[in-house]
Amino acid sequence: MMDWHLFVLFFIVGIFSGFAAGFFGIGGGIITIPILLWVFELKSIGGDYFVHLAFGTNLFVIIFTAALASYRHTRNKNVFWHAVPFIAIFSILGAFLGAGVVNFLSGVVLKYIFIALLIFTGFQLLLDKKEKTGNHKRNGSGKGDKRLFQAITGLTAGLISGITGLGGGLVTVPLLINLLKYPIKIVAGTSSSVMIFTTTAATIGYVIQGWRNPSLPSGAVGYVYLTAAVPLMISAVISSQFGAQANNIISKKKLQVGFALFLLVVSLKLLFF
User: Fold this and answer.
1) 3-state DSSP assignment of residue 214
2) How far apart are CA 87 and CA 119, in angstroms?
3) Using H for helix, E for strand and C for coil, what is the string for 16-45?
4) Whole-angstrom Cα distance, residue 134 to residue 184?
5) 212: left (phi over 0), alpha (psi -120 to 50) or beta
6) Mean pLDDT over all residues of the chain?
């Protein structure tokens, strides 16, 4: 039985991660995973596989936050649904490939991959303060390379999702902007919609890889710790709606810088403390 203090902690974390998922279209794992890593290691939950457990748990939660955020963005007409299925097919392939190698990587290696991604993303956001508008054509670049770029976007996002336990949005969002030239207003919604498929595939992979692992605690289904996932999911699916709505009305300039600084602080915490 989980300590009620942890239940409250995860519920609060879910509020912030859900808002981030809805607003930025990144899944919210960038907030959830550091907390899960800290708690699981502190409480010896999952033993040597606490990192794998944190990643799988986060992916499970993102399925629901991405779905609700996608619904809200769709109502706001901020999802380019013509591109979602094709990108999603390749993201599913990448997610299965990424999740398939997690058992061959130690928790320490996975943790440092995650930290490196935090630092890279933080500096990318911090050094690029201009709010990009993207090309106003929703079909990306020329017709000849459109599908190729969509495939690259999906496959890359899926691989990152499977290996790091994130929803893939950290990769999908910049690729949708820089490679496919989508307008900034539809990027978060399109990313969230793709993540529904990406994280479902990655979660299934983590469940399979962790199935019957004797090191995992009661309440774990493979590398998904439902005891922690439930409070995270409940609060995150609610707050993701507010994040998606805020995306429709708030400028991202100041929030982008603040979020970048947050990522760098978290990476330092994981790296040195």
Assistant:
1) coil
2) 26
3) HHHHHHHHHCCCCHHHHHHHHHHHHHHCCC
4) 6
5) left
6) 84
Contacts with 116 (C-beta within 8 Å, 6 or more apart), sequence order: none
CA distance 155 to 9: 34
Strand-pair partners of 119: none
Is-contact 80 186, C-beta < 8 A? yes
- Report d(CA 167, CA 197) in Å as an integer: 10
14 in Cβ contact with 233 (< 8 Å): yes
CA neighbor of 36 nearest in space, from 272, 223, 203: 223
Name the token pair of 223: 């590398």
pLDDT tens-digit readout, 102-120: 878 887 888 888 788 778 8
CB-based contact 17:241 (threshold 8 Å): no
On the CB side of 214, how many CA atoms lie within 13 Å of its CA? 0
Query: For residues 14 and 32, is the Cβ–Cβ distance under 8 A?
Result: yes
pLDDT for residue 39 is more than 70: yes
- Report how far apart, in Å, the C-alpha atoms of 50 and of each of 1, 34, 41, 213, 215 are: 18, 12, 6, 12, 9
| 244 touches 76 (CB < 8 A) | yes
Question: What single letter denotes the amino acid at residue 92?
Answer: I
Let me know if 102 is exposed, middle or buried by CB neighbors in 10 A (0-12, 13-18, 19+): buried
